[in-house]
Specification:
This protein has 497 residues and is α+β, with helices and mostly antiparallel strands. It has three domains: 3-133 and 283-373, no CATH class; 172-251, no CATH class; 383-493, Phosphohistidine domain (Glucose Oxidase, domain 1, 3-Layer(bba) Sandwich), CATH 3.50.30. It has 20 helices and 13 strands. Helix 1 crosses helix 4 (108-130) and helix 2 packs across helix 5 (134-148).
Amino acid sequence: MKWNRYYTSPSTVASFIFGELCYKKPIDITTQISGIENSYLSYVERDKGVLSEHVKYSEDSSKAELGYKYFLDPEKRKNYFQKTIEIIQKTQGYIKYVGSCDMSKLTTSKILELVQRAEPIYNESMGYYLLSQPEYTAKLNKVFLLNLETYIPKEKVQDSFITLIESDKISCLEDERLDWLENIILPYLENKAGLNKDLVIETHVEKYKYLSASAQSKPWDKNHFDKVFEEESKKTIEEVAREIKEMEDKENRIKNKKLGVIKEYDPPENLIHNIEILSELGSLRLEAHLRGWQFFQYFGPVLVEKTAELLSLEREDVYNLKFDEFISLLEGRLTITDEYKLRRGGNILVITTPEKGEETYFGDDAKNKYETDIREEILHVSEFYGQTVNGKGKLVGEVFVFRWGAEDIEKRIYEFPEGKILVAGQTLPLFMPALRKAIAIVTNEGGVLCHAAIVSRELNKPAIIGTKIATELLKDGDIIEMDLDNQKITIVKSDQK
């Protein structure tokens, strides 16, 4: 059985704490919901500066079957949606509570309280979110596509399916964008008297800053929006007004597109109803991601680093504690001895399986175990496949590649050149300035309900996602052809070949 690497982050925040808290414990929640035991792996590669998370390929079929039965069950689906909304509300309440705390006056006891208050909310939030991952929705996608083929010509099925799963709801990202254009950019271009640019931007920051907060990025700040303003202020009033109208008309536009498919091909009502489940799930999934769990992945490291500062410890030594050890440290029951310091410099491999429980390896043992039993060979290929989630025909362009762990990732986002194809492991809200300039999107990860898929449709950018290997095969300047009809990417020109 092979391991599927599904997530990579900089190892500056890699640790036992975040391996356990960010995925292992939430996966336990997903297991409780689904009844499916999960195998999980976390690997810190110090020399490469990355932490990677893995699950078993072989589990995908059982997860797909579970997701199919679960989300087609009206009662389970209703409970899932209600519970997820409740968790999002809990998260927003926690964020509000954090905002009321004086972070400059934190003590270890206050950090302990914040961590203990956050843990169950985060575990639930991520645990429920994981149930909407592509491996759980794979059979829903496959069955609905096959069912559509009964009514729609095969060459038209993919486009029709993508249309039918589009959400007509304004997403939280679109909500932020609309607010920005209506209350900042348009008044500025119209030279509205009394507009205090700095004040309105600061107000906008307070309202939306945490949409980008994650393990990979800090909250949006005034500096971010100042850079966005610099670009946006070059637009004409007509351009801004047109974008505003497009977003305001989204509900009617999407509903009319769906109605067009239904009128042309007349699929049965129950099939349309079932496909609508994916539309609703995609909208909720994005909300759960941006307003839910990802804040904790930013805030956790903040608390860990503050702990190290308060206790005069090396930050790496605190990062490399297990979660229960971290709690003991905050309670004053743990001392960082030489034994704990040995974890600091080398690779760390943690494997959790139903058969053996948790296995932990350090240094060369971790590297050897990973190289021997885990790592998959990436072949030198000239073409590879993913899933088209927007667009049709063929597109040729030059790529600009984002790799997790790169120290200059945020700088590269603002410097992204107009007209390039954006290639990334996955996309997050911090990519929005670059995504708006890109002519197309390619990712390693994701399914039809992921952030990249939803944003590609919102921005009308051609996109192929879930390639697994794009960032490992491509580098800046490579020329690729995206065959959107056949979900294929061909490397046209590369210095590596």
